[in-house]
Amino acid sequence: MHPIVKPALRRGWRDLNTVQFGMTPAHAMVLGPVDTATGSFLELLDGTRGMPLLREQGREMGLPDGHVDGLVDRLAGSGLLDDTTGGGPAADALRERKEVMERLRPDLASLSLLSREPGGAVERLAARRHLRVRVRGAGRVGVLLAALLAGAGVGEVEVRDPGRVEPWDVAPGGLPVESIGERREDAARRAVRRAAPDRPPRASARDEGEETRGLSLVILAPRDGLAVHAPDPVSAEGLIISGTPHLYAGVAEATGVVGPLVLPGDTGCAGCLDQRRADMDPTWPRLVAQWRSGRQRRVAACDLALSAVVAGLAASHALTFLDGDPPACTGVRWEASLPGCEWRSTPVRSHPACSCGTATKTNGGRTPEDGEAHATMSGRQPHAAQLAGTWRAHV
């Protein structure tokens, strides 16, 4: 182990005996009392030394036997310590790719704040290289979203969308103006490759109707706002049958939508959403039938800034899920409308009449009503941790 105090956390001394790591309430911790020798020793926890050398230098600084090990254990237990040699063989292989690691250093620093165990951040980052994600939709939201996932280290990101690039598909960070007239999938593939810090995604001859085995996540980011406002359950039938997690994201008129993240068999799906809406509004099926009939003759409203926000939020939720944590959009739709752009959430409850069968599996467990909305999107709540001995930690 080569311990390092997580460099993502800014450090400041509140007084001569109390040090604060981090600035934001979600991650900041205050530790003390810290004597002068221990405070000086903290500077040695920079990831360049193993424990034998740290013990030796601790003795030279006058620290008693066992103090170094106790300090390292307490820092590790509080989530303040990382290990520059941890993470296992996959992490070692990633470290050998120096240029890739330089590109991903900000992402690694961010993951270190989410992984309490030393070496956990680089382990998560290395695991992303072996994931496969498919994005359905190569518009303003879909291509930027795919590029963000590839740029964050996801190993294989596919984009599926028929047709050719139109002028209104172009967006900063997404499809460039030079791609107008090209096949959407080809242009999207190049955008993803440009964003990826590592090797480009593997060449793929898979068909959209193929079995979805091997997919970690499918993101439905349709260019048509109706398909995200009122997603057709038929379009996700294969995903439900195969048990593939899938996430909805897009812009409908002047409203951005992220979610729900559907975990087949565990959370409500597009069919459940459709059934609940029909229960609440008897005219809903008639309206949807009219909206879906005929061809879209007008360019759909899709504000450039709002589409970028949707892509960023959806990518963040997707990465949270891929890294093994439950994102806030699991079984929930987040929506924000212009001009205020205030995010609000609505749970998507399972419906007993939906063919997905989730309601039967969950045995009708109590969940918030479909019309019940949370207040606003908020960050993680501040936490406190009690450390051994005279150490204390709080925000």
Task: Explain the overall architecture.
With 395 residues, this protein is α/β, with parallel strands linked by helices. It has 2 domains: 124 residues, Outer Surface Protein A, domain 3; 233 residues, Rossmann fold (3-Layer(aba) Sandwich). 35% of the residues lie in helices and 14% in strands. The protein has 15 helices and 12 strands. A 7-stranded mixed sheet has the order 7-6-8-9-10-11-12. A 3-stranded antiparallel sheet has the order 2-3-4, with no helix packed on it. Helix 6 packs across helix 7 and helix 8 crosses helix 14. It is elongated. The two termini are 28 Å apart.
Order of helices and strands: EEEEHHHEHHHHEHEHEHHEEHHHEEH
Biggest beta sheet summary:
7 strands, mixed
Secondary-structure arrangement, i.e. CATH architecture of the largest domain: 3-Layer(aba) Sandwich
Average pLDDT works out at: 87
Number of strands: 12
Question: Would you kindly provide a brief summary of this structure?
Answer:
The protein has helices at residues 36-42, 51-60, 67-77, 89-95, 98-103, 105-114, 120-128, 140-151, 184-195, 226-229, 237-242, 270-280, 284-292, 304-322, 358-361, and strands at 3-5, 11-15, 18-21, 29-31, 81-83, 132-136, 156-160, 217-220, 246-252, 255-262, 332-337, 344-347. By secondary structure, the protein is α/β, with parallel strands linked by helices.
